[in-house]
Amino acid sequence: MPDPSIANISDTARWVALYRAMESERPDAHFRDPYARRLAGTRGEQIARALPGFQSGLWPMVVRTCVFDEIIQRAVDKDGVDTIVNLASGLDARPWRMRLPPQLRWIDVDLPEMLAYKKELLAGERPACAVLSFSADLTDAAARRELFGRIGRGSRKTLVLTEGLLVYLTTDQVAALASDVHTPESFRWWAIDIVSPPLLRRLNKRWAPTLAAGRAVLQFAPENGTRFFEPFGWKELEYRSTFEEGHRLKRQMRGAWIFRLIGQLSPAARREKMRRIGGIALLERT
Question: CATH for 58-285, among 3.30.1490.20, 3.40.50.150, 3.40.50.980, 3.30.70.330?
Answer without folding.
Answer: 3.40.50.150
